[in-house]
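Sanity check

After download, print the first record. It should look like this:
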Amino acid sequence: GRLDYATTGVLLLTNDGELSNLLLHPKHEIEKTYLAFAEGRITPNALQRLQKGVRLEDGMTAPAKVKLRSFKEGVSTLEITIHEGRNRQVRRMCEAVGNPCRRLRRLDFAGLTADGLAPGAYRKLTEAEIKQLRTLVGLK
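Expected structure tokens:
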């Protein structure tokens, strides 16, 4: 799954077109978790709206898993897990509840993380990880 220019975090690069297409297809509901740094204090109502789904110009979002991690210096840090992949979705969701996103980092894609990797670094997937991804989308 692509990231917009201003978003950092986990990317999966592959030459397996079938796997890539299936991982990105909405019917498989592959989870992506983000750390969003949103302006202002997120209200309980805004959290509930994000969790239930918010109306964007291209329709309602699916419910999201949302946790408020912290609030300091005028910024709410949210952990948001979605399974859709709309353009700039997390940024637009935050804006829809009145808390524009200052920074966004993808922490997890389909169970893969960048734990232990410096920004810009990469690693090869293990055979177990490849098998797990293929299983997620119904491939042998």
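If your output differs, re-run the checksum step. Summary of this record's structure: The helical segments are 17-24, 44-52, 89-96, 127-136.
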